[in-house]
């Protein structure tokens, strides 16, 4: 009886969440669909709502997320391989495991403060794309490590044993057998981590990302803004036209997120086959 009541409450909460999410999506689409156009996607920000575009923020998002993936994925997957395939189960190993799990739950604003002190000031990166990407890489790195470890752990031990029996070394076994088998899970975890990073605002504002950038970034040392910051800037203005711009910006952000997840799903299915 208790289990039925518990599952019923969980189902009701899920349905309520879906209804609220659907209502929000309907409101966003109805407010922003009329503003979406090619000019909106290719125009730079403006003080006038009817002339404002999202090109600088869109390109900044692509730059930051791409650099975040380049920084976080190799380090995260490499760390997971070391911990899962080479690590010894001693006291220090357990301490590292606990710290990685704890870092996954640290508020994002803390990573912003760390990025401000380490990348912007100590390493003199300034308020650049690289500083923002490095900060977000620290934010998503624990998630990438944990997801990659789970994917590696799910690979059957018999696959490793068969490879060793045929004379392969440990690294040959990992590279040619374990990683291809774990790749779908690693891709799924990586996309979840990057999906979190693409919607972050607080860490980037903390390190000094601009809310108004009348130019598109052209490299990793350029100042930048991203779509969530641009949407935040527009929402904070009293004019109704800027609220419509914000709704259109949210739709662009959702489309970019769906494109990323769709690509990850396609790659995952391909490697699973």
Automatic annotation (TrEMBL):
UniProt-recorded name of the protein: Probable ABC transporter permease protein YqgI
Q: Which PANTHER family match?
A: PHOSPHATE TRANSPORT SYSTEM PERMEASE PROTEIN PSTA, PHOSPHATE TRANSPORT SYSTEM PERMEASE PROTEIN PSTA-RELATED
Which BP terms in the Gene Ontology apply to this protein?
A: phosphate ion transmembrane transport
Question: Which species does the entry assign this protein to?
Answer: Geodia barretti
A single GO CC term, please? plasma membrane
Stated membrane topology is:
Multi-pass membrane protein
Record keywords, A-Z = Cell membrane, Membrane, Transmembrane, Transmembrane helix, Transport
Residues of the ABC transmembrane type-1 domain:
58-264
**Which residues are listed as membrane-spanning?**
55-83, 103-124, 130-152, 173-194, 246-267
Q: Which NCBIfam families match?
A: 3a0107s02c
Record's subcellular location: Cell membrane
Main subcellular localisation: membrane
One Pfam family, short name please?
BPD_transp_1
Family according to the record: Belongs to the binding-protein-dependent transport system permease family. CysTW subfamily.
**Tell me, what is one Gene Ontology molecular-function annotation carried by this entry?**
phosphate transmembrane transporter activity
**Cited InterPro entries:** MetI-like, MetI-like_sf, Phosphate_PstA
């Amino acid at each position: 009886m208790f289990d039925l009541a518990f599952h019923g409450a969980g189902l009701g909460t899920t349905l309520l969440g879906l209804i609220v999410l659907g209502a929000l999506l309907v409101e966003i689409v109805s407010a922003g669909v009329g503003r979406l156009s090619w000019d909106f996607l290719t125009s730079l920000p403006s003080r006038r709502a009817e002339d404002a575009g999202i090109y600088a923020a869109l390109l900044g998002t692509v730059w930051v997320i791409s650099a975040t993936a380049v920084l976080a994925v190799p380090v995260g997957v490499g760390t997971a391989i070391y911990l899962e395939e080479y690590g010894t189960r001693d006291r220090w190993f357990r301490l590292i495991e606990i710290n990685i799990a704890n870092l996954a739950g640290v508020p994002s604003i803390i990573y912003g403060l760390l990025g401000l002190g380490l990348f912007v000031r100590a390493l003199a990166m300034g308020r650049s794309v690289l500083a923002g990407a490095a900060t977000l890489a620290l934010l998503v790195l624990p998630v990438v490590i944990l997801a990659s470890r789970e994917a590696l752990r799910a690979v059957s031990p018999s696959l490793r044993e068969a490879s060793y029996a045929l004379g392969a070394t440990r690294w040959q076994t990992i590279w040619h057998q374990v990683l291809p088998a774990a790749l779908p899970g690693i891709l799924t975890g990586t996309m979840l981590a990057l999906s979190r990073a693409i919607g972050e605002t607080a860490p980037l504002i903390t390190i000094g990302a601009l809310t108004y950038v009348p130019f598109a970034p052209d490299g990793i040392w350029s100042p930048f803004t991203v779509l969530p910051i641009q949407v935040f800037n527009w929402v904070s203005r009293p004019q109704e036209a800027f609220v419509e711009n914000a709704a259109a910006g949210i739709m662009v952000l959702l489309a970019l997120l769906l494109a990323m997840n769709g690509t990850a799903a396609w790659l995952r299915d391909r490697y699973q086959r």
